[in-house]
Every structure is written in C-alpha cells, then in structure tokens.
Write a sequence for this structure.
C-alpha cells in the first residue's frame, strides 16, 4: 500500500521537477525487478515441470499412463479420478486421523522445543554445554538404530495400534528443532533479558514475553516443518498402526499399489490432494516471513 | 548482602535451567537412552531376531573394518554425496531466500511454489524422478534430444547415477529456504538503515551485516545438512537400489540391507555405530571451526 503511494509521489515529483535523474533511478529499479522476476520464474518452471507431470498423470486413464511418446495433455481428461480416490479408500477418515495426529504433534513440538531451546540459549546452569552436546549427538544416531528397541518398548507399554507412539515423543523436545530454535534465540540481544529482569520479570516471563514474541518467524518455521513431517510421515504409522480405521494418509496412499498393480493415475491424484493442507499451512504461515516484524528495540 | 542476593539468583537460574530443559531430558531418558544402549549391546552379538543371540565379542567390528569392502564403498559414495550436495544446497537455498526476501510483487506465490517440492515426499516423488531421468522417454533426455544431444543413461549409468541423485536433492531446496527466510527476518532493520546513512553499498551491507547475522542459521544448516546427507536412504532404495555396480550404495542402504534383508542385527548395529562416529567426527570439525566464523549477538556463556 505505502509502496504504491510512494511511487505515485515520486512520479508526481518527477513531472514537476524534470525527469532525468528520477527516471534513471526508476528505470534501474524496473530493470532489477525484471531480472529478479525472470530468474524466479525460470526457477519456478524447473520446479513445476515434475509437478505438472504428476497433475497430468492424475487425469489419465490407467492405459494412457504409459503411452510413448508421453502425453502431456490427457485427452480426454479424467476428472472423475479425483472422485474415484474418495470411493476406493476411506480417504476422509484418513484425512481426519492425519489431521488429529498432526495438530497434536505441532502443538507439542513448538511448546517443548521452545522451552528446551530457551534453557540452552539463555540460562546458565552446570552441565548445560555437556547436555547440549549430548542432544546434538542424538541427531547423529541413525534412526534405524533405535527403531527396533523402540518398537519393543512400545509393545511392552501396550501402545501398538494407538497414536501414542506417534504423538507423545513429540511433546519432549527433539534435537533438530530445538537446535534450530536455540540458534534463533541466540540472535536476540541479551540486553533485553537483563532489562526485563531489572523490571522484576521471572525466567518464564522472559521466555514468554520477550523471546517468544521476537521469534515468531522461527516458531512459524518450526510449525511448518513439524506439520510437514508429521503429515507425510510414513515409517511411523507403518510400524505402529495396524487397523485400517487408524490409518493415516501416507499409509492410505499405499492402497493404490500392491505387488502386481499400481493405479498410477489414482496414486498421483491422491498425492496431490493430500499435499493441499500442507501447502495451505505454508501459504498462511509465511506472512511471518516479512522483514520488519522483528525489532530489536535497541538503538545503537 | 549483595553477594547473598546474587548467589540466590544464580541458584534460581540453575534450577530454572534444568526445569526448562526437563522435557528433553525426560524424553531422552524415556525414549532414546534405552534403545541406544540396546543397539550398543547388539553390536557384540549375532542377533538375527529369530534365534537367541550369542555373544561374539569384537567379531562384527573386525569384519566391518577389515574384511568388508562394501563398507568402504558405501562410505565413499555417501561422503561424495554429502560433500557435493550440502554446499550446493546451502548456496542455492540462501540465494533463493535472498531473492524471496525482497518486496517484489507476487512474493507469497513465489515462496509457495519454491516450497512446493519440499511438501511432496515419499514414494510418489521418487517415482516421478525416475521418469525425469528415464533414458529413452524421460524428461531430461527428451529435452536434450530436441537440441540434438544424446543424454546418458542417468540412473542406469554408474558414472551418472550419483550426480543424478545429487541433482534431485536440489529440488527440495524449499526446506532450507524456510529457515533462511525466518533468519533474515531477525536481522535488525536499523543496522541496514545505519549502514545506508554511512553510504555502504549493497555488497558491503550484504557482506558486513547479512552474512554475519546469518551465521548462526548457516551453521545450523551446515550441521543438519551433513547429518541428513550422510543418512540418505529412501531415494537410494526406490530409485537405484544401490546400483549400478554399487555406484549409489549409500551407507544407510547397506545398513538397512544387513538389518532387514539379511537379518544381521548385530552387524547392522556395528554399521550404525560406525556411521554415528563418522558423523560425529565431521560435526566436531564443523563445531570446532564455528568459533572462527559464527557470530552470536545474544550469547550467554556457560559455566
């Protein structure tokens, strides 16, 4: 909005006081904008080609999927594939299950990781640095290593075919996203904490009223990542969920393939539908990535 | 009087530190420590799930380090992949984030498009890329053929399979982009304003403000990028299954084969710990170097 106004003002000024210097500056800006758009568009096309192919495949009949030369525009387009997806499998049920797990995961992850990251970034306690190194070390452990013992543990606890193994561990921090938040918290000037403490703030006040509000972009990033990985998780549900009424989307996608037959057109249609919520979350969360949200509040 | 007050404050901070870190400490003890210990024990046995295990001492370790050429082959493949793909991903992701942090029109749409590939995962994507790289009718070779170039066999060619997988990894640069975008929001705008008043050029502002302020985030990407690259698995399994001639035998794939195809859990555990120590070594080198190039505004030194 304000940008449009300033452009208008600039134009009016240019008309009044003679064009030459303003115009060259504007011309340079236009040139930069054209170059940026050009580069971004080219990259976007590269990224979109495989997706366009997915979309095209989702509109084909199974027979046309393998035609050579490949057909870019299906003729005729089979829009009914998208209806078929919901008829062949209980897709709605899968969406509900996945959403349930994902929301609990995101809430737990953001809360627990930010608490732990605050401790590692801001508080001084004996053993902190050793604990931090230990946490980094657990990131390096290949997940397959702990997979089998973990499964045995959850079986002992009677958690198999429940959502507990998928949700509960996410309420206890987690090295990757805690590390990420810790890195962000450390870019916030420590003078802010000191000022708050002089005003009588507790450590929890500093966490909730100083650090968290200033970290909205980072928290948005963590929420986006967790939503994405939770929504798309395949291995976890595969191992821990057995009855079909508990299945998630990622597991449900498997229904379109078996040993001797893959319904490519339906698989692609279902994959595209299942990624819409993740994209929507990203689209709305990215408003936190706008420069100028974060003010240090400290003037040099 | 004052010193008494300060020491009680210190003690409160000590307690608060543990309390805030408690979620992770409890989670670690409950969900990670036990399985970790168990896998360390398996490394010294011949456990194969079906039969009771026997203690075999250092046999597994000796075999992995001295008599198994595939261990070295898979370490080599994984290392090349990590050393090429991680720097490319960092530079590319950062460049895209910088372009998408300007005030051009349609920004939110560009951002969403660039993030799109990161959203797709699993089997569908790997199969999609098999079509992109297919030798006769695939996307790339069709394009090359239209300008008169005969493309290589990509995934079926032992010289091109690994580069093909590296190229595919760059498609997912949207994930790192999100981290950079979030990081760029944390650079205080008054720094740029002050620099502009002092007549600093775009390049100088980038080099003396943006880069230093972003080093904590770049450090994060470097560490997690190395860890993730060394643990690459799904792509290798679905797209090439390690072939041709073990040219894409990633370490995690070889580990998986030992564990779930041959059911050599003991040997697989040894491989897992070899990978762990290898990642640890590389990470320690990066962390050691960080004091020379990572800059924290809000650093609180430990005791």
């Amino acid at each position: 909005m304000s940008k449009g106004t300033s452009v208008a003002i600039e134009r009016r000024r240019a008309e009044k006081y003679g064009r030459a210097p303003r115009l060259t500056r504007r011309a340079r800006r236009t040139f930069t904008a054209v170059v940026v758009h050009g580069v971004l568009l080219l990259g976007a096309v590269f990224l979109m080609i495989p997706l366009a192919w997915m979309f095209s495949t989702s509109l084909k009949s199974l027979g046309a999927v393998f035609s050579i030369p490949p057909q870019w525009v299906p003729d005729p387009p089979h829009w009914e594939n998208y209806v078929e997806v919901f008829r062949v499998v209980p897709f709605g049920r899968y969406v509900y299950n996945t959403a349930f797990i994902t929301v609990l995961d995101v809430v737990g992850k953001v809360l627990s990781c930010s608490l732990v990251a605050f401790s590692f970034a801001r508080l001084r306690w004996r053993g902190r640095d050793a604990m931090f190194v230990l946490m980094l070390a657990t990131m390096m452990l290949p997940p397959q290593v702990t997979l089998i013992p973990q499964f045995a543990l959850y079986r002992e606890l009677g958690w198999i075919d429940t959502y507990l193994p998928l949700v509960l561990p996410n309420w206890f921090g987690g090295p990757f996203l805690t590390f990420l938040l810790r890195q962000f918290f450390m870019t916030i000037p420590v003078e802010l904490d000191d000022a708050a403490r002089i005003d009588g703030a507790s450590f929890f006040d500093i966490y909730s009223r100083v650090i968290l509000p200033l970290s909205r972009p980072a928290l948005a990033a963590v929420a986006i990542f967790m939503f994405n990985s939770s929504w798309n998780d395949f291995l976890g549900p595969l191992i821990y969920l057995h009855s079909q009424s508990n299945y998630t989307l990622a597991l449900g996608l498997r229904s379109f393939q078996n040993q001797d037959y893959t319904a490519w057109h339906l698989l692609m249609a279902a994959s595209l539908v299942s990624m819409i919520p993740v994209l929507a979350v990203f689209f709305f969360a990215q408003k936190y990535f706008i420069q100028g949200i974060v003010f240090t509040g400290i003037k040099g | 009087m004052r010193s008494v007050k300060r020491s009680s404050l210190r003690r409160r901070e000590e307690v608060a530190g543990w309390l805030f870190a408690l979620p992770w400490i409890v989670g670690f003890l409950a969900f990670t420590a036990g399985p970790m210990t168990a896998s360390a024990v398996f490394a010294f046995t011949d456990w194969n799930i079906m039969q009771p295990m026997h203690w075999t001492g250092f046999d597994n370790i000796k075999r992995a380090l001295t008599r198994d050429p595939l261990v070295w082959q898979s370490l080599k493949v994984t290392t090349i992949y990590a050393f090429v793909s991680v720097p490319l991903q960092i530079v590319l992701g950062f460049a895209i984030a910088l372009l998408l942090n300007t005030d051009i029109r349609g920004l939110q749409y560009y951002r969403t498009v660039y993030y799109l590939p990161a959203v797709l995962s699993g089997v569908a994507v790997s199969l999609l890329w098999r079509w992109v790289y297919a030798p006769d009718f695939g996307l790339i070779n069709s394009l090359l053929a239209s300008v008169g170039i005969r493309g290589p066999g990509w995934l079926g060619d032992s010289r091109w399979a690994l580069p093909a997988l590296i190229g595919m990894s760059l498609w997912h640069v949207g994930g790192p982009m999100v981290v950079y975008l979030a990081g760029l929001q944390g650079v205080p705008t008054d720094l740029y304003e002050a620099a502009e008043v002092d007549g600093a050029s775009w390049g100088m502002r980038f080099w003396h403000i943006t880069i230093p302020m972003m080093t904590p985030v770049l450090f994060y990407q470097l560490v997690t990028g190395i860890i993730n690259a060394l643990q690459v698995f799904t792509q290798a399994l679905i797209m090439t299954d390690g072939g041709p001639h073990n040219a894409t035998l990633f370490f995690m794939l070889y580990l998986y084969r030992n564990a779930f195809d041959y059911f050599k859990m003991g040997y697989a555990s040894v491989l897992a710990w070899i990978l762990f120590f290898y990642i640890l070594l590389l990470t320690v080198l990066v962390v050691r170097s960080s004091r020379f190039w990572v800059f924290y505004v809000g650093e609180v030194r430990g005791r």
